[in-house]
Structures are given as structure tokens and as C-alpha cells.
Design brief:
The protein has 301 residues and is an alpha+beta fold. It folds into three domains: 97 residues, no CATH class; 49 residues, SH3 type barrels (Roll), CATH 2.30.30.60; 83 residues, Alpha-Beta Plaits. Helix content is 50%, strand content 20%. It has a five-stranded antiparallel β-sheet with strand order 6-5-4-3-7. A three-stranded antiparallel β-sheet has the order 8-10-9, covered by helices on one side. A two-stranded antiparallel sheet has the order 1-2. A hairpin with a 2-residue loop joins strand 1 and strand 2. The chain is elongated, with a radius of gyration of 35 Å. The termini are far apart. 16% of the residues are buried. The model has no long low-confidence stretch (mean pLDDT 77).
Length: 301
């Protein structure tokens, strides 16, 4: 047994004697410091371990520690993310010092690289800062119905760099966080899930306005998606060229994500109700007068 162990140890030593020169190959020399292949591999392994530990620390803080103190979801996410980045930064510094890297020798190189990165990552930095602002101030949060830059949908994820919005067509759109700081954002559900929907309606001048008002309110009460409180109301908005225009305004908390569907269903009900009671929805009309210039000239001759 001892002979076998000695033989195995001898083979391992021989293999190490062949591998060690490759591991001692210098990859980068900065002053008195030489980065060898062996140190580089050690750095990769330790940094990978640091990434795993920081991710688990972020999940532990965000999902277990902060909820015990009643911290809101957006603030929890921001604090957990900041903690992970701090651990990564200081952990990387410690790893470099453990491996014998002289950080002072990297000052000039890091300054040159920092200038280049600063110009190339301005948008990334602005999105990062905007993400922190969003997570801390919470002008939007996961589950909100928003409209930003013509994109309307539900917020499903808020990250440090970008926010994910899913439209009614189930299309995920990645919006940079800086868009929420520099442009106008419509948040349909910032204060509550209840929103008001307006349905414009035009009727002929021969129609009784009071009857139209009663029929429109009846349609609103018949629809299960319309709230009773606040109550629906009807406005007479305009005496137009070809019609008297009304606006049916209703409140809903079921159709917040799909207001166009509610408008369509109300329009179907309004059309059926108007046909039932003989209310005419007019079409544009024009009176045309034709004058014959040639006939008048013949008569004068």
C-alpha cells in the first residue's frame, strides 16, 4: 500500500513539475507585480465564488431580513442591490490584495481605463442612477399600468438598468430607466386600480337629450364591469354640425389593463339600446347646390 501511495505521489509530483512552468507564465507585468496564469486562474475562481455569495446575500437581505422590518418592495430591492454592489466592489479589492496585487501600481492604468469607460458608459450610468431613483421614490412599481413614450402596458420587473413592460399583446418591452426620469410617464394605477373611461356618442338633432341621457346611464348600469360608486355620468359636450355629442363617463377596476375592450362592449350595448328606442346615430350630411351657368347664358342670348 505504501509503495502504491509513493508511486501515486511521484506521478502527481511529476505532473505538477510539467504544469507549474505554464502556471508561472507571466500575463501582465506592472512595476514589481507580475500577474501569472496561476494567479489569474485563482482570481477567476475566487471572483466566481464572490459573485455567488453576493447574489445569495442580496436574496437573503431582500427576501428575509428587510421584510421583517416592514420595508416596502421597491426599497427592499434597492437596498439589496446596493448591498450586493458594495460587497462586489470591496470583495474584489480584498481578493486583489490577497493575490499580491499592488493597487497603487494600478492607479495610472485604472485612471486611463476610467476615462474611457466614463465616456462610453454615460448612458449606463444614467440608467443606473435612474433605476435607484425609481426603486427609492417608487413613481412606478411592479403591477402598475403605465404609458411611457407611447408604450402602454403592465410593469412586470424593475431592475437597476431597465424596466420590463408587458403589453396587452403579451409583448415584453425593455425600457431604459432614464426614460422614466426624462420623459412624461402616465401611471394609471399610481394611487388606485380604479380608472375612469369616457365613451363619446353622437345622436341626431331630432333626438330627445334627456332620453339619450337616461339610455346611456341604463347601459352603464347594465354592464358588470362598471362600478356603481363613483356613479357613471353623462355630459352633453357639443352641438356639432351633424349631431348632438354626448360623453358617457364610467369608472372601472376590472378593465384597467384593457380600457379599449370596455369601450367596445359599451358601444355595442349603446347601439342595441338606441335601435330599440329609435334613437338615430347620424352620418355626416352635406347640402349641395348645383348652378347651371351654361343654361343661364343661353337664356340671356
Amino acid at each position: 500500500m505504501a509503495c502504491w501511495l509513493n508511486a501515486e505521489m511521484g506521478s502527481v509530483s511529476a505532473l505538477w513539475a510539467h504544469v507549474q512552468p505554464f502556471l508561472d507564465t507571466p500575463l501582465l507585468v506592472l512595476g514589481d507585480f507580475s500577474l501569472t496564469l496561476g494567479r489569474f486562474l485563482q482570481l477567476l475562481v475566487l471572483f466566481g465564488f464572490l459573485l455567488i455569495c453576493s447574489a445569495r446575500l442580496q436574496a437573503w437581505i431582500g427576501n428575509q431580513v428587510l421584510p421583517r422590518f416592514g420595508v416596502e418592495l421597491g426599497v427592499r430591492s434597492a437596498l439589496a442591490s446596493i448591498t450586493r454592489y458594495l460587497v462586489l466592489f470591496f470583495g474584489s479589492m480584498v481578493l486583489l490584495q490577497i493575490l499580491g496585487v499592488d493597487l497603487t501600481s494600478l492607479t495610472l492604468l485604472s485612471s486611463a481605463i476610467g476615462i474611457g469607460i466614463g465616456f462610453g458608459m454615460q448612458s449606463v450610468t444614467s440608467n443606473f442612477v435612474a433605476g435607484l431613483v425609481i426603486l427609492m421614490e417608487r413613481p412606478i412599481k411592479v403591477g402598475d399600468r403605465i404609458d411611457v413614450g407611447g408604450v402602454e402596458g403592465d410593469v412586470v420587473r424593475i431592475a437597476i438598468r431597465a424596466t420590463t413592460i408587458v403589453t396587452n399583446d403579451n409583448i415584453a418591452i425593455i425600457v431604459p430607466n432614464s426614460e422614466f426620469i426624462t420623459t412624461r410617464v402616465t401611471n394609471w394605477t399610481l394611487t388606485a386600480r380604479t380608472v375612469r373611461i369616457t365613451v363619446p356618442v353622437g345622436v341626431a338633432y331630432s333626438s330627445d337629450p334627456e332620453q339619450v341621457r337616461r339610455l346611456l346611464l341604463a347601459v352603464a348600469r347594465e354592464h358588470s364591469g362598471v362600478l356603481g360608486r363613483p356613479e357613471p355620468d353623462v355630459l352633453l359636450t357639443e352641438f356639432a354640425d351633424n349631431s348632438v355629442n354626448f360623453a358617457l363617463r364610467v369608472w372601472t377596476d376590472q378593465y384597467t389593463r384593457i380600457p379599449a375592450v370596455l369601450r367596445s362592449e359599451l358601444n355595442f350595448l349603446i347601439s342595441a339600446k338606441f335601435r330599440e328606442h329609435g334613437i338615430e346615430i347620424p352620418i355626416p350630411q352635406r347640402d349641395i347646390y348645383i348652378r347651371s351657368i351654361a343654361a343661364r347664358s343661353v337664356q340671356e342670348d
